[in-house]
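TA notes, week 10

Several of you asked for a full example with nothing omitted. So below is the full record: C-alpha cells for the whole chain, then the designed sequence directly under it. When grading your own attempts, check the secondary structure regions first.
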C-alpha cells in the first residue's frame, strides 16, 4: 500500500482517490519521506518537535522545519513561482487573499483529516484547515497603572494617556500581528476595512515610540520596566505573567456588541509537494488534543480543539487573562481581508508613525 500511495499523482490524492487507504498508521508507512514544514521557530517549532515529530519518526519518516514568518514563507513561494521549499505552510488569515490570487495550494482531502471532528465546521474547507487563533489584547502592568493613578484600560484610546508616553508598545505593521491589530484600532475608532483614517488619527494620538516585530519583545520589556502596556496577543501576556510580571489583559471594546479581536491561523498544502499523504497526516496530528493543548500552553495561541480548550480552563493564569466563553469568542472582531488594501494600510501606517 505504501508503494501505491507514493506512486499516485498528487491530483489523485487531492481529490480523494486514496480515501479508501485512510487506515490507521503503521510502522514504516513513511519510510524515506522527509516532510518539510514552514512555521515559526522558537516554542512553535519546539512543540512540534516534542509532540508530532516522534510520531512521524516512528512511522519511518523525518520532519524538517523551514522557520520564518508566514510573510517570509510566502515570499519564498513567489520567488520560486510556486515551487516551495516546503510541503506544509502556516498561513495567516491576512494572507488568504494573497493565496487566492495565485495557484500555489492544492486541495485538501478532508477524508484524510479525521481529527477535523475536534474543531468547528467553519474552521476547515477544501483549501485550508484551521490550526489556532490568537486573542489580541491590551496587556498592562497593574502596579504601574496603580502607581500613576491610571484606570485600567478599556479601549485603545486609553493608551493615549500622557503618563504612558514612551511606555506603550504596539506591533509593527509588518509583524505577524500588525495588520490585525491596526484593523482593531481602525474599527474601534469608527472606521472599517476601507476607511482607515479614524484609526490613523487614533494612532497619532497614542503617539507610541516602541513597535515590536516579535511578541517576545514585550515580555522582556515588561520585565525591564521599559513598557507599562502593550498591544499583543494574550499568550505573550500570559508568558509575562508566568515570568512574574504583574500584568493583566483587557479585551478592548471595539464597538457595541463587539469586544476583543481574533487573529486566525491555517494550514495549507503546497501544490508543488511530493509528500501529500504525509502532509495530510501532519495536519491531522496538528488537531489532536495533546498537541493543541501543548501548543497553547507553551506558545500562547488559543486551541481550536474543544478538549484542549477545556484543559486550558484548569490553569489560573489562562482563566484570568484569556476569554474562555465560546459565545464571547465568536463575537470578537475578525477582519475581512478581502476588503483590505494592504498597500494603503501599510503606507498610511508608515506615514502616520513617521510624521508623529
Amino acid at each position: 500500500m505504501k508503494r501505491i500511495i507514493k506512486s499516485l499523482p498528487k491530483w489523485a490524492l487531492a481529490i480523494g482517490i486514496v480515501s479508501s487507504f485512510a487506515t490507521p498508521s503503521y510502522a514504516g508507512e513513511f519510510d524515506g519521506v522527509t516532510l518539510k514544514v514552514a512555521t515559526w521557530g522558537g516554542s512553535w517549532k519546539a512543540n512540534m518537535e516534542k509532540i508530532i515529530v516522534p510520531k512521524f519518526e516512528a512511522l519511518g519518516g523525518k520532519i524538517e522545519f523551514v522557520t520564518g514568518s508566514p510573510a517570509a514563507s510566502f515570499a519564498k513561494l513567489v520567488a520560486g513561482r510556486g515551487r516551495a521549499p516546503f510541503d506544509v505552510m502556516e498561513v495567516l488569515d491576512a494572507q488568504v487573499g494573497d493565496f487566492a490570487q495565485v495557484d500555489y495550494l492544492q486541495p485538501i482531502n478532508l477524508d484524510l483529516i479525521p481529527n477535523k471532528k475536534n474543531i468547528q465546521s467553519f474552521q476547515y474547507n477544501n483549501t485550508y484547515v484551521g490550526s489556532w487563533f490568537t486573542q489580541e489584547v491590551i496587556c498592562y502592568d497593574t502596579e504601574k497603572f496603580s502607581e500613576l493613578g491610571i484606570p485600567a484600560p478599556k479601549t485603545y484610546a486609553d493608551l493615549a494617556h500622557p503618563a504612558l508616553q514612551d511606555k506603550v508598545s504596539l506591533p509593527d505593521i509588518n509583524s505577524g500581528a500588525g495588520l490585525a491589530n491596526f484593523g482593531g484600532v481602525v474599527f474601534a475608532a469608527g472606521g472599517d476595512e476601507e476607511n482607515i483614517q479614524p484609526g490613523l488619527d487614533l494612532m497619532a494620538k497614542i503617539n507610541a515610540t516602541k513597535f515590536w516585530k516579535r511578541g517576545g519583545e514585550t515580555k522582556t520589556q515588561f520585565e525591564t520596566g521599559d513598557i507599562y502596556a502593550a498591544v499583543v496577543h494574550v499568550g505573550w501576556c500570559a508568558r509575562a505573567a508566568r515570568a512574574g510580571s504583574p500584568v493583566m489583559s483587557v479585551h478592548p471594546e471595539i464597538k457595541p456588541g463587539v469586544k476583543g479581536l481574533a487573529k486566525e491561523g491555517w494550514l495549507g498544502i503546497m501544490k508543488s509537494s511530493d509528500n501529500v499523504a504525509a502532509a495530510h497526516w501532519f495536519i491531522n496530528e496538528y488537531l489532536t488534543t495533546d498537541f493543541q493543548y501543548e501548543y497553547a500552553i507553551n506558545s500562547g495561541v488559543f486551541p481550536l480543539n474543544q478538549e484542549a480548550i477545556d484543559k486550558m480552563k484548569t490553569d489560573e493564569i489562562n482563566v484570568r487573562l484569556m476569554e474562555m466563553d465560546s459565545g464571547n469568542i465568536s463575537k470578537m472582531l475578525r477582519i475581512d481581508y478581502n476588503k483590505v488594501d494592504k498597500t494603503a494600510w501599510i503606507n498610511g501606517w508608515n506615514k502616520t508613525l513617521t510624521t508623529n
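The chain has a mean pLDDT of 91. Use that as a sanity check on your answer.
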